[in-house]
Structure formats: C-alpha cells, structure tokens
C-alpha cells in the first residue's frame, strides 16, 4: 500500500519532509486502511509560513464577506455530494457506525451553512455613542490571523468543521492537524475546500503525531491562535506551549457528564421507556467515545433496581460489529490501547466494589465481529461511589456507571461533583424541578428530558477542566476575531492641554 500525499501546504499536496509515513488501521479488524505522510516540525513550520504569507499578503482576509460566505456554502454542497463516500471513510477510520457517520456529515454541512449565514447577515460593526456629534466611534471585528487547529480522533470531521468554518468565515488562514489515528476525512475536507475555490495557502494540513506537530504549532511565534480539542493532559501542554507568545487559546478538554433521572420521569410506562432509552443513547453512542457521553447515571434510589435491570438487559442486546454492516448499532473502539484502557477501568471498578450488571468483557467473534477487532461489550457498573476511579476520570469507553440519590439537593451535589463541566442532563416530569436542577448544574450544556442534541447556533464548551472558550454559536465565531475600537474625531482642533 503506497503512501498518499496527505500534507497540504500552499495549495500543493506533498509527502513528509523526512519521508516519514504512518499506517492507518481499521478498528474493526486492525487491517490497514491507508498509509499517510507522518509530518514533523519541518512540515509544521512550512505550513505556518504558508498560512502567514496568505494572511499577510494574500486576498482572503480582505475578501468581501458575501464571497467568503458563498465559498462556505459551496463547500457544504460538496460535502453533501460526497456524503456517502465521506461517511464510509469516517466509519472505517473511527469504528463508528455508518448511520452515525452520515449524521456527522450532515452536521458538518449544517455548520458550514450556519456560519455562512451568520457572517453575511451581520452589520458593519457596532456604533458607540461617544456623547458628541463631532465623534464617530465604532467597534469592528477583524480576523485573528494564522490559526492552528488541532482536532481529536473521535469526531475528526465534525470537530474540524467547528474550527475551520468559523475561522474561514472570519477571514483567517489556518493549519489543521488531525489526530494521527483518524486523519482521512479531514484530508477529504481540505480537498473539497480547494475544489470550492479557496486560495492557496489559506487552508494547510499537516498529518502527524501530536508531540512534534501539535507541539510546534502551539508554540510557533507566527501562530496567532491555537484551538485544541482533546484530553486535559494534552490540552494543558498546548496552553503551556502557547503561553510564551501570548497567543489566543481555545481548549475543549472533555467531560465527566452526569445524567440525572428522577423517579417521576419513570412514573408512566412511556416515561420509563424514554428515560431508559436516553440513558443508553447517552452512554453508548460511538461506543462511549464521546466527550459529552452521559457515562454517569445518577438515578433516584426508589426506582434504581427496576431502572438498572431494564437498562442492563437492553445494553446486553446492543448489536456490535463492523460499523459499515447493516443492523450494527455499536462499532469498535478506535485502537488497541483504547480497548486496553476500557478493560483496565472495568477491572479497577470491580476491585473497588462496583457490581457488574452486564458486559465487562470483549464479545465473542462472529460474522459481524472479527476476532482481531477492538470491540468491548457495553458495560453497566452498579453501586458506584464518588471516590472510585471510574467515577472521577473521563473514560471514553462503553461503560455506564450508576450512582443513586434520595433528594434533589443530593442529585445536584452528585452532578456537580466533578472537575469537569462539559455537559449533563436531567429527566423529570416536573418542569419546575427540571429547570431548577438544570440551572444549578455547573455544565456548559444541560439537556432536559433529552441527551446529545446540539445546535450550530448554540455555544458549545464547558466549565472547569472541560476547557476555555466556546465553539459554535456567535461566540464560536468571536473566538476567531479580534475586536478593534476606531475613534474618529470629525472636527480636529488643538487641545491646548499644555500652555506651550
């Protein structure tokens, strides 16, 4: 299998400067999918230089807003044209089901279109009343400059779009570094941007590992902003690397997300069915490899046994297999290391006293589950306590833990007992209580009687160790802008402050 030219600099596709390559593996059976260039610091420097030149001397920052918006819309159309091809690539690269990957492509398309609409409908700045008819004062918004965009392995195309669409809408240039595990859909997206007519040097791509490439982008003096989505350890390293040059930093660092279920949500058969179904969706979409996964079920004690019994029974029936196969509901984990980490978490939880209700092991191979694939059965761990490792740490695994509460106050305390604060949910038939609890939960997104939906027009981001800054929404565009105040004296005259 020959290596593809996966590094894109100044409008040209190329191999790594040192000739390095990396084999990309299919999580379903560990077979090779592709061989891509393994870039390093030389490639990162070249990409930043191209982005710097395109920003300082190129046409893109000064391109009329309507034209920038039109390019985003053309890109959205191309994404839909290639929807099935991209979805299949994303499914095979990440292990997620084809149905999930198709939704990802649609969500990416929606993000490009929404940011196009946002910028084209804006005014020309904010007029400030200076208190004098002789002064014209306005606040305007300008692009930050060169942006380094570092994306994770679980939603490579989606997370790239959350950064690339607003960066381009604002008039920036960028270098994107996808995860070394799942770069293929990002490569496709850069090809589509080129096809849509983006000028050379505006969009640059370096494939490679985080240590040389991501670290260099974060510290580079010619990078004006770094946006990183990933784990908290890597995120803090990015922030530290960016600090000496005092560049803008946006970090989305995951979460440990509570799903609070009150007994009244289960008072009817329909309510019970809905709450159980949503708990499954919260925990096991994409095998739990989601930053906002509802991996902590916090259930009212009076309905715990019935709820957990039904939950475990349904989790046991989730159909595992290769994500591109019809009828498969849950795919493989992204890597052998991720599978090992999942097994380590299960073992530590059981050692600390958790009760295994289902799963807890690799599935038996069958027609849909290759023996060499990185699969783990959906797992429910009951009787968990706050001090357990499986409760404290972000798992990124098909593991759902169960905690219980008796009072509303205790439910809120449990939900907020985490260093993270990305997302959470509350299920209750009592609207006033649901809204009251949602208001007290210290998380960037809180769902009431639902789990996982997001909107491109609403901000996404977290409190605490879940990061700083916001993606999506008007704030997601503001991340990629600098604010400038222009004060114009319409009738200049001597001030006579000094007598002379």
Automatic annotation (TrEMBL):
Pathway: Amine and polyamine biosynthesis; betaine biosynthesis via choline pathway; betaine from betaine aldehyde: step 1/1. SUPFAM superfamilies: ALDH-like. Transmembrane segments: none annotated. Signal peptide: none annotated. It comes from the Bacteria. The active site is at residue 252. The keyword Chloroplast does not apply. Residues 13-486 form the Aldehyde dehydrogenase domain. Pfam families: Aldedh (PF00171). GO terms for molecular function: oxidoreductase activity, acting on the aldehyde or oxo group of donors, NAD or NADP as acceptor. Belongs to the aldehyde dehydrogenase family. This is Aldehyde dehydrogenase family protein. It comes from Streptomyces calidiresistens.
């Amino acid at each position: 299998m020959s290596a593809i030219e996966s590094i894109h600099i100044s409008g040209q596709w190329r191999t790594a400067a040192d000739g390095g390559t990396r084999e990309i593996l299919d999580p379903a059976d560990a077979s090779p999918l592709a061989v891509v260039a393994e870039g390093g610091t030389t490639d990162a420097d070249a990409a930043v230089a191209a982005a710097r030149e395109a920003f300082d001397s190129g046409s893109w920052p000064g391109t009329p807003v309507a034209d920038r918006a039109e390019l985003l819309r053309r890109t959205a159309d191309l994404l839909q044209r290639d929807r099935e091809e991209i979805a299949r690539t994303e499914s095979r690269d990440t292990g997620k089901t084809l149905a999930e990957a198709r939704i990802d492509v649609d969500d990416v398309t929606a993000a490009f279109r929404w940011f196009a609409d946002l910028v084209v409908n804006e005014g020309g700045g904010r007029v400030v009343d200076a208190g004098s008819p002789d002064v014209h004062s306005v606040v305007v918004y300008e692009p930050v400059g060169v942006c380094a965009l570092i994306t994770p392995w679980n939603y490579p195309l989606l997370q790239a779009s959350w950064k690339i669409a607003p960066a381009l809408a604002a008039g920036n240039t960028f270098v994107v570094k996808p995860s070394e595990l799942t770069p293929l859909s990002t490569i496709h997206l850069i090809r589509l941007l080129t096809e849509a007519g983006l000028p050379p040097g505006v969009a640059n791509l370096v494939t490679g590992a985080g240590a040389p490439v991501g670290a260099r982008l974060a510290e580079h003096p010619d990078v004006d902003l770094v946006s990183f989505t990933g784990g908290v350890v890597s995120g803090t390293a990015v922030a530290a690397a960016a600090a000496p040059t005092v560049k803008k930093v946006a970090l989305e660092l995951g979460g440990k997300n509570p799903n609070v279920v009150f007994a009244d949500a289960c008072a009817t058969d329909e309510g019970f069915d809905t709450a159980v179904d949503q708990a499954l969706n919260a925990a096991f979409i994409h095998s739990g490899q989601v930053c906002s996964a509802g991996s902590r079920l916090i259930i009212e004690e009076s309905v715990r046994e019935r709820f957990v019994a039904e939950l475990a029974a349904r989790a046991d029936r989730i159909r595992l297999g290769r994500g591109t196969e019809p009828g498969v509901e849950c795919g493989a984990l992204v890597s052998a290391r991720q599978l090992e980490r999942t097994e380590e978490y299960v073992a530590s939880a059981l050692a600390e006293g958790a009760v295994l209700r289902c799963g807890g092991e690799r599935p038996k191979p069958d027609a849909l589950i290759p023996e060499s694939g990185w699969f783990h059965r959906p797992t429910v761990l009951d009787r968990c306590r706050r001090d357990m490792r499986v409760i404290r740490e972000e798992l990124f695994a098909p593991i759902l833990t169960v905690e219980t509460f008796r009072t509303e106050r205790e439910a809120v305390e449990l939900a907020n007992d985490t260093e993270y604060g990305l997302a959470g949910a509350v299920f209750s038939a009592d609207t006033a209580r649901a809204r009251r609890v949602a208001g007290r939960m210290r998380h960037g997104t809180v769902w009431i009687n639902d789990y996982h939906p997001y909107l491109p027009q609403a901000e996404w981001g977290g409190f605490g160790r879940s990061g700083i800054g916001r993606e999506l929404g008007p704030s997601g565009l503001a991340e990629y802008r600098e604010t400038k105040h222009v004060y114009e004296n319409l009738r200049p005259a001597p001030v006579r402050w000094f007598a002379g």
